[in-house]
Amino acid sequence: MRTCVFILLLLGILQLSEARLCYNCTGDCVTDSECKGSCTTSVPELGDGHEIRSCQNETVEARCISEIIFDKRYKTCYCNTERCNSSSVASVSAFLFALVALLLRELR
Ligand SMILES: *[C@@H]1O[C@H](CO)[C@@H](O)[C@H](O)[C@H]1NC(C)=O
Ligand SMILES: *[C@@H]1O[C@H](CO)[C@@H](O)[C@H](O)[C@H]1NC(C)=O
Ligand SMILES: CC(=O)N[C@H]1CO[C@H](CO)[C@@H](O)[C@@H]1O
Fold this sequence. Notes:
Blueprint: H1 2-17, E1 20-23, E2 25-26, E3 32-35, E4 39-44, E5 52-55, E6 64-69, E7 72-79, H2 91-107
Antiparallel strand pairs: 1-3, 2-5, 4-5, 4-7, 6-7
Bound molecules: 2-acetamido-2-deoxy-beta-D-glucopyranose (3 copies).
Residues 41, 51, 77, 79, 84-87 line the site of one 2-acetamido-2-deoxy-beta-D-glucopyranose (NAG).
């Protein structure tokens, strides 16, 4: 059981040091891609339209800017953590939560 925990811990560390994953799709989606830089989310500022999730080549400062894409104004946010341009709970924190729960059980 102890070995099992160590393997999980190792996998967690490896996962964190790998290339960052970002959601890379339009609208409500779960598709992700490996990215070198920051994840982005572009939300239309006016009217309807889909959110655009993608990523950059480079890591830039995490911030939100206003920009025009295809004649529409979007609010684009950059972020620099695993799958951070998502509306759902990040998988890394879910993983860490599971790991902590396991460790606590192990230590009792
Ligand atoms: C994002 O998805 C598109 C279309 O599936 C693909 O062409 C593109 O290479 C992806 N971007 C990255 C960074 O993987
Ligand atoms: C982004 O990456 C692609 C392919 O790796 C490269 O061709 C392109 O020049 C890069 N763009 C920037 C802005 O670095
Ligand atoms: C930092 C960042 O870009 N977060 C965005 C991720 O995507 C959601 C929409 O699903 C935005 O609300 C966040 O601002």
